[in-house]
Design a protein that fits this description.
Layout lengths: L1 E2 L8 H7 L3 E2 L20 H9 L13 H14 L3 E5 L2 H12 L5 E5 L4 H13 L3 E5 L4 H7 L6 E5 L11 H10 L3 E5 L4 H4 L9 E5 L13 E5 L1 H15 L5 H12 L1 H20 L4 E5 L9 H7 L6 E6 L2 H11 L4 E2 L9 E3 L10 H7 L6 E5 L5 H13 L2 H8 L1
Parallel strand pairs: 4-5, 4-6, 6-7, 7-8, 12-13
Antiparallel strand pairs: 1-2, 3-9, 8-9, 10-11, 11-14, 13-14
This protein binds pyridoxal-5'-phosphate (PLP).
Length: 406
Amino acid sequence: MANTTLPPNLRPATLLVHGGTERTPYGETDEALFLTSGFVYESAEQAEATFKGEVEHYQYSRFGNPTVAMFEKRLALLEGAEACLATATGMAAVHGALLSHLKTGDRVVASRALFGSCHWIVSTLLPRYGIETEFVDGHDLDAWKQAFARPATLVLLESPSNPMLDLVDIQAVSALAHEAGAIVVVDNVFATPLLQKPLQLGADVVVYSCTKHIDGQGRVLGGAVLGSQKWVTEVLQPFLRNTGPALSPFNAWLLLKGLETLSLRVDAATRSAAAVADFLASRPEVAAVRYPFRADHPQHELAKRQMSAGGTLVAFEMAGGKEAAFAMMNAARLVAVSNNLGDSKSLATHPATTTHMRIGAEERARLGISDGAIRLSVGLEDAADLIADLEQALGNLPQARRSAAE
Ligand SMILES: *Cc1c(COP(=O)(O)O)cnc(C)c1O
């Protein structure tokens, strides 16, 4: 295997095509897929030297695999992180980042608006191991300050959050967290590695569900954890190697190909999402639109400060509540009903009855998830076709038909 030597200071789109590539002696253009669980040694001596750490040699694909390593290197270059380890799913990444670092007696502070399974880990799993956890309203800096009145071990936050696109001031919270003794883990799925750089804002660890924009074509599950070389090697790697949430080489290969087009796809979907958000805001059937780069987002200033664009997701609230939300989702022909996001196909979710059903009405109210709320993941369709589809779906609402008949 030979490393390709790249010129310095390459921009993201270039890194996404060339970063991390290693070629076999066959000189293949495409990244090689090493669909192998194990590796052989030239001799018993080489095996011994490998296990002693004197020689670098792949040992076993739960520990490492050349295709997985290419993916990890490419993503690390894009993120500007010293090190990256890939996992089988986004949740394996979150779980690994947290459980590798935490022990009984530690204290975790998390923003309330988290992806459902992340919320479960913090609220239900960690306390089982004697880890104290506390949720705060992520947008409220005073709430963070109060939580850091006592020492903490780890902070988990998501910004923009699922599904209402609330933001957390990553720079301010990281500074406060560090003073309280905590490391900061950011779930950066909604922003993607292109639109927000948590490590540059002071966070210590970034996690991804690569299932979302990084694959971006609805094919495979995957995850990744990025951080300093020291933390990844000393804290995360032993945990992942010995507990085994390894990414399959085949999925790593698909994710490598996903990275090649990530910036094209995220740029296109972001442009469409901004146009869709503006269209929705112009409609009387829509009570409110949430999009970080719209001036009416309550944290618009923060969005402009810590993100380079608004992203591919739009949240909005139908004036007619659940009935209108369901009717609109059912009437759309291009936008499919799904709980997934970050796909090339546009997908609509009704959080109150699906992804956020289990947290209960009270918690949904705290998070601003009304029964009329819809989360729209904007895909790669032509924006004009998407807007036309949403327009016909809004025109087909029962109350719209009723008022047209009057
Ligand atoms: C999807 C998602 C996850 C979990 O990722 P999986 O790949 O489904 O395990 C975690 N956080 C956020 C914000 C997500 O959207």
